[in-house]
């Protein structure tokens, strides 16, 4: 090879991780969006199946609960199985199940199919989150974690917005079938990802699950898992009931308007990678605390809002804060986890976060009934404040920030 050819070859090698990271991020975005796609169309689902408006939320609760629990199923396997195959199979299975759910003859079967869809959907982000630190140069792990977290932000935001827009223009079935088609394309794209070797030695699957359960014995890892639990209980609890709040006066929004407001959450697509880049500069705990402050500010704005502009600002702060926290917490968790368990640790963190979100969707139902939006906002703010106390306790010298 000539001397002049060397820069081109080096550039090609540099481009490969970025292309793979982009593919992994898009696959994550679409899978996550599929879990959240019922949120802006609760009224349309309720009308179609003849159930109460508030009961329609159980379609999301069941899917998100199944999705969260499945991170424990797939997480430990990411340190042993080919990530490319796991991600592609999950996206393909998700596409099939969404298409079947559209034609379900009753609400019970619809919820059941979405629950199974939530299970297979978890295979995609589990694989992609585990892939990122293997792709990234050591100094860019926070940035790569931020990319996939940003993709999950986009997925949550698109799931909570675009189905409402499409349902308003066509119908809710068209919106869900569109999501199925995109996941099918994602399954094919995932097959182009590099087939990187797992860092852990091959062994019985039971050993992998035992290693992940062992993370509950470490004070640092337990504190970080508890932080994520409190954050997501507060954040997703408020975000779920925001749909009902925006249907009330003084707003009276329809599905399309609710979807457009939620698009403000796309700030996380940019914010999460930027927060990841800040980790080696100011330290992961400082990034987490700053993000939690933004979340509390967003909840306060949503609690007081009487104008769409204030609601949009609140959603903006809420999502920006949550997904500024995530890459920093994942960096801390990867540093705290034993060697060979980083993939399982990341998936366990996603499990507890999303499980908390699903629990909030169910548990805040009585709060909404008896205390309304004020009660939901107060409960969410208290949970995020608890996360702040845990983050303050997790402060370490700057040397552990990267």
Supply the key terms.
402 residues, Growth Hormone, Chain: A, 16 helices, mainly alpha
Overview of the structural elements:
The protein is mainly alpha-helical and 402 residues long. The protein has two domains: 16-196, Growth Hormone, Chain: A; 204-396, Up-down Bundle (Growth Hormone, Chain: A), CATH 1.20.1250.20. 78% of the residues lie in helices and 0% in strands. The protein has helices spanning 5-36, 42-49, 58-74, 83-102, 107-121, 123-135, 141-159, 162-169, 172-190, 205-213, 219-247, 255-262, 267-282, 284-304, 308-336, 342-393. Helix 3 (58-74) crosses helix 16 and helix 15 (308-336) crosses helix 16 (342-393). The model is unreliable at 1-16 and 396-402 (pLDDT under 50). The chain crosses the membrane at residues 15-38, 58-78, 85-104, 110-131, 143-163, 175-196, 208-235, 255-275, 287-307, 313-336, 348-367, 373-394. Pfam families: MFS_1. Keywords: Membrane, Transmembrane, Transmembrane helix. Its main location: membrane.
Fold topology:
Blueprint: H1 5-36, H2 42-49, H3 58-74, H4 83-102, H5 107-121, H6 123-135, H7 141-159, H8 162-169, H9 172-190, H10 205-213, H11 219-247, H12 255-262, H13 267-282, H14 284-304, H15 308-336, H16 342-393
Helix pairs in contact: 1-4, 1-5, 1-6, 1-7, 1-9, 3-5, 3-16, 4-5, 4-6, 4-9, 6-7, 6-16, 7-13, 7-15, 8-9, 8-12, 11-14, 11-15, 11-16, 13-14, 13-15, 14-15, 14-16, 15-16
């Amino acid at each position: 090879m000539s001397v002049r050819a060397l820069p081109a070859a080096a550039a090609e090698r540099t481009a490969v991780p970025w292309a793979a990271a982009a593919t992994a991020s898009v696959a994550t975005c679409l899978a996550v969006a599929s879990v959240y796609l019922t949120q802006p169309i609760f009224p349309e689902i309720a009308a179609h199946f003849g159930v109460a408006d508030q009961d329609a939320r159980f379609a999301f609760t069941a899917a998100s609960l199944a999705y969260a629990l499945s991170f424990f199923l797939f997480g430990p396997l990411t340190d042993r199985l080919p990530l490319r195959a796991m991600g592609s199979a999950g996206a393909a299975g998700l596409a099939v199940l969404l298409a079947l759910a559209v034609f379900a003859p009753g609400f019970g079967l619809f919820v059941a199919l979405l629950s199974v869809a939530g299970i297979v959907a978890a295979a995609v982000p589990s694989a992609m989150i585990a892939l990122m630190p293997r792709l990234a140069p050591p100094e860019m792990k926070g940035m790569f974690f931020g990319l996939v977290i940003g993709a999950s932000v986009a997925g949550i935001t698109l799931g909570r917005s675009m189905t409402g827009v499409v349902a308003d223009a066509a119908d809710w079935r068209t919106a869900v079938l569109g999501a199925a088609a995109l996941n099918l394309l994602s399954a094919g794209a995932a097959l182009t990802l590099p087939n990187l070797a797992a860092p852990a030695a091959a062994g019985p699957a039971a050993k992998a699950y035992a290693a992940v359960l062992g993370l509950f014995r470490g004070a640092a890892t337990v504190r970080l898992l508890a932080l994520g639990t409190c954050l997501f209980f507060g954040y997703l609890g408020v975000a779920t009931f925001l749909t009902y709040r925006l249907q009330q006066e003084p707003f009276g929004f329809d599905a399309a308007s609710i979807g457009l407001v939620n698009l403000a959450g796309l700030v996380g697509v940019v914010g999460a990678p930027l927060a990841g880049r800040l980790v080696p500069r100011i330290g992961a705990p400082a990034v987490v605390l700053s993000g939690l402050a933004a979340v509390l500010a967003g909840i306060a704005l949503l609690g007081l809002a009487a104008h769409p502009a204030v609601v949009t600002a609140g959603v903006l702060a809420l999502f920006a804060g949550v997904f500024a926290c995530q890459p920093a917490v994942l960096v801390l968790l990867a540093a705290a986890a034993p060697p060979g368990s980083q993939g399982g640790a990341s998936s366990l963190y996603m499990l507890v976060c999303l499980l908390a979100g699903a629990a909030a969707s169910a548990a805040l139902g009585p709060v909404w009934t008896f205390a309304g939006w004020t009660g939901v906002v107060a409960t969410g703010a208290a949970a995020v404040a608890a996360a702040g106390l845990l983050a303050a306790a997790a402060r370490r010298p700057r040397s552990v920030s990267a």
